[in-house]
Amino acid sequence: MEVFNNIFAINHRCSSFFLGLLLLLASALSLANAKSHYHDFVIQATPVKRLCKTQNSITVNGMFPGPTLEVNNGDTLVVNVVNKARYNVTIHWHGIRQMRTGWADGPEFVTQCPIRPGGSYTYRFTIQGQEGTLWWHAHSSWLRATVYGALIIHPKEGSSYPFSKQPKRETAILLGEWWNANPIDVVRESTRTGGTPNSSDAYTINGQPGDLYNCSSQDTVIVPIDSGETNLLRVVNSALNQPLFFTVANHKLTVVGADASYVKPFTTSVLMLGPGQTTDVLISGDQNPSRYYMAARAYQSAQNAPFDNTTTTAILEYKSSPCAAKNCSSNKPIMPPLPTFNDTATVTAFTSSFKSTDKTFVPTDIDESLFFTVGLGLNPCPPNFNKSSQCQGPNGTRFTASMNNVSFVLPSNFSLLQAHHQRIQGVFTTDFPANPPRKFDYTGNVSRSLFTPVPGTKLYRLKYGSRVQIVLQDTSIVTSENHPIHLHGYDFYIIAQGFGNYNPRTDPSKFNLVDPPLRNTVAVPVNGWAVIRFVADNPGVWLMHCHLDVHITWGLATAFLVENGVGELQSIESPPEDLPLC
């Protein structure tokens, strides 16, 4: 018996040794297949004609939208950005985890000082464990109105998509907004007056407004498809301030991914994406060979707020369609029905359909249970301001916004990450409240005494590895609204959403801890709430903000300071030598 046990022990050790060796070889093979991709981004003014008018728009490499970057899971991106424009600029790689590489995340005065005109900075980071559609965009003022592009992450080399049918072709669909003005002038005028900024003049698909606008039909985007094939559409809402519905006439869309995470497939006729969100859908060429409009229009949840009520279109064109071989401008494509602009029921049905496919690791024992109110506010007109020209909010006020009654103020002399890394005092504090300073009827009639938040650069400190739950609660201060809340440096599980005021006694029964979707941007329902969870495993300073740029301009943001853990692999890397100076 003792001999048998010894033989078993030897065999077990050998098996363990060979298993470990195989894992090491597999890991080495994966690293060997990983590539580094090098790109140059030149930020420059470029003449762009839309809606019958030409204006100098800020672009990357003279392209609008900017270049699409394609990588595989495990690859490294190295992007040298040269600023030849007249504005400060940074580039954010929206949704990239940036594990230990927070210096490459990009938000101005958060992880870096801006790249000044004439300056440059090289972003270096590795994509780890993410597949699907993300995007990149400027993160300085309102430059991202024209400075953006798709970032497509394919499976590792030799792997395929986890779909029952592999797509024949892939097309990025970037939804955007266009102003017949310089977007920087638009936001500066809004800041001067204290009122709402002018609404956009058009929505766009891949930079083009489409057939329903003046001077636009000649350049309407054509998306090819062939009978019998299945294609992958990678839809990104890169609009500045507007959640958008998206649909394709006579075609069903099978949702298979969102924010670079796979989801259990479900079929829908319409998508709704908040700014910052991405959705991957499969579309089949199962209709009569013809031309069909793709269309996008606003989802507007805020009452009595001005918005752009136009519709942008592209054309899904069958290659075997008679129009594919000749100009068929007189043959109008089929137009799809679109939801009404305030159709929250359709939005709720869509967002509640998302479930993760992968095995989830939802944190259960929570270390940090946080409750953040999000919403607008009003500041009284300062005594030295002209009330008629500088206080054009309701009743002679100025618009503001906040989380937990703190209106976020960016520093100007140092970035937050630089101040943290170099232990520079006086740049920020770490006393952002874990709960609202005052409890109130968040979605009811709110006292005017709660309309004015406190300005500050307040961060919330998290220990490395802490398990975090955040309740994000919309408020009806000024107006309730659907807020797309984006967290930099992390994906998170959306474990529940609902309407009204979150109830800590009854609403936990609605938590999905089995297969919740993994996202980087959550659409907090109008007059409602969302609950997210994540593990703070990425050290650095990470911005959390509303992705309606008008709201972050007003201060609807905060940031997490995640401490280093133990050892090098749990600590942020040293700053690169070419990090821009303030």
Strand content: 35-45%
Q: Under the CATH scheme, which architecture of the largest domain would be assigned?
A: Sandwich
Share of helix, binned: 10-25%
Major sheet description: 6 strands, mixed
CATH fold call of the largest domain? Immunoglobulin-like
CATH superfamily of the largest domain: Cupredoxins -  blue copper proteins
Give the termini separation. 74 Å
Keywords: Apoplast, Copper, Glycoprotein, Lignin degradation, Metal-binding, Oxidoreductase, Repeat, Secreted, Signal
GO molecular function: copper ion binding; hydroquinone:oxygen oxidoreductase activity; oxidoreductase activity
Family: Belongs to the multicopper oxidase family.
Main location: secreted
Primary descriptors:
3 domains, single chain, mainly beta, 582 residues, 32 strands, 6-stranded mixed β-sheet, Immunoglobulin-like, globular
Q: Can you walk me through this structure?
A:
GO terms for molecular function: copper ion binding; hydroquinone:oxygen oxidoreductase activity; oxidoreductase activity. The protein has about 575 residues and is mainly β. The protein folds into 3 domains: about 35-160, Immunoglobulin-like (Sandwich); about 165-355, Cupredoxins -  blue copper proteins (Immunoglobulin-like), CATH 2.60.40; about 370-570, Immunoglobulin-like. Helices cover about 10% and strands about 35% of the residues. It has 6 helices and 32 strands. It has helices spanning about 1-35, 185-195, 345-350, 385-390, 415-420, 550-555; strands at about 35-50, 55-60, 70, 75-85, 90-95, 120-125, 130-140, 150-155, 170-180, 200-205, 220-225, 230-235, 245-250, 255-260, 260-270, 270-275, 280-285, 290-300, 310-320, 370-380, 395-405, 405-410, 455, 460, 465-475, 485, 490-500, 520, 520-525, 530-535, 540-545, 555-560. The strands form 7 sheets. It has a 6-stranded mixed beta sheet, with no helix packed on it. It is globular and about 65 Å long. The protein starts with a helix and ends in a 20-residue tail after the last strand. About 45% of the residues are buried.
